[in-house]
Amino acid sequence: MKLVCLFSLLIVFYSYIGYGLLLYLVLRVKRLFTTRRQPDTTGYEPRVTFMVAAYNEGAFIRHKIANTLALDYPADKFRMVFVTDGSTDHTNQVIGQYANIELLYEPARNGKTAAINRAMALTDTEIVIFSDANTLLNAAAVRRLVSHFIDPSVGAVAGEKKVITQENSGSEGVGEGMYWKYESRLKQWDAELYSVMGAAGELLAVRTSLYAPIPEDSILDDFIISFNINIKGYKVAYEPQAYAMETPSASLQEEFKRKVRIAAGGFQSIVRLAVLFNIFRFPKITWQYVSHRVLRWTLAPLCLALLLVSNVIIVFNGGGYTYLTLLIMQGCFYAAAYTGYQLAIHEVKIKYFYIPFYFVFMNIAVYKGFARFIRGRQSAIWERAERALQN
Which residues of 241-263 are buried (b: 16+ CB within 10 A; e: fewer)? Predict the structure, then answer.
């Protein structure tokens, strides 16, 4: 039982903290022997398709269009495509008012992946940039993303996701924002070592020639697209100066729904990307992939429960002060998480309780997401999580 407890502690620590620390140390050593050179990108302006998949985004679509039109890139090399399959509100009518935006629409709602596959079949520009309909980009985003493609080893570029919390944001917003700050740092380090481990669909640029249609039942299309680039032998770079901004989920219920869907998609992706476990074929990727992604969706949530159960059993069987101390620490952590939950319900903001609450919150979502994946009950059609209103 002690081995179970110690193994569980090791996995939980490594998955959420240890990997980041080890990655940082590895990069410190790497920087001693290598010099990062910035290539000259002057005059490098390949043709770009800016693609937005939107479903019933009538409330926000004008903001997205205005933001897209304000992006800094030559108009004659910048194609804008909005795919609105299945939309039943006034999204199409709004987009139709702009002659320089291509509207692709089919009445049937077959999901975001099907819409992207269809639009990509009609795309012939060198680069395609995917962006979510509910996000706003900084003006330099396109240029910053495109600049990386001057390196022939780069097959895709991930932008940064920023969750904009406001005065009225609840704990779900603060927790999501803190999570993405940490996640963005890990992505930056991953890319410096070799490649980003899974890009967010809010802002992702891809070489069009490397895109291959993905199964239409894929839950995490962005995840599959970016790793398919890795499988073909190319890197996914990271550009923190190209960022997509969005507000947090409108409520805990909406954030939980989103996390459950992501977890179910994570398990589906692990199965479909099983080839990445072949360390002999992917010596530069396998360690990063398992450490950053796979453990968080598989062993870490399981070990989190095993750590508590095994620790209780050991203490009740006279395990000694070391295990008693560990159990007390776990008790304090879960007490803080529960306090954070109660504060969230009553809309009371105390920052120090956000981290334990959001950590437990995410792992509970993984359990439910796994159950949905096993039962095949998670639809690939996106159930849009409501976002907090922007001021």
Answer: ebbbbbbbbbbbebbbbbbbbbb
Span 48-249: which CATH code?
Answer: 3.90.550.10
Distance, in Å, from the CA atom of 38 to the CA atom of 147, rounded to the nearest integer, reads 10
CA atoms within 13 A on the CB side of 304: 20
Strands (E) across 29-149 are located at 48-53, 78-83, 101-104, 127-132, 136-137
Structure tokens at 251: 């409520």
Token digits for 112?
């975001």
The two tokens of residue 128 are 């395609």
Over residues 52-111, the pLDDT tens digits come to: 999 999 989 999 999 999 999 999 999 999 999 999 999 999 999 999 999 999 999 888
Residues whose CB falls within 8 Å of the CB of residue 19, separated by 6 or more in sequence, listed in order:
186, 291, 292, 295
> Whole-model pTM?
0.91
Q: Which two tokens stand for residue 210?
A: 């490397």
Domain boundaries, given as residue ranges, for the chain: 48-249
Beta pairing partners, 80: 50, 101
* Residue 44 parent element (H or E): none
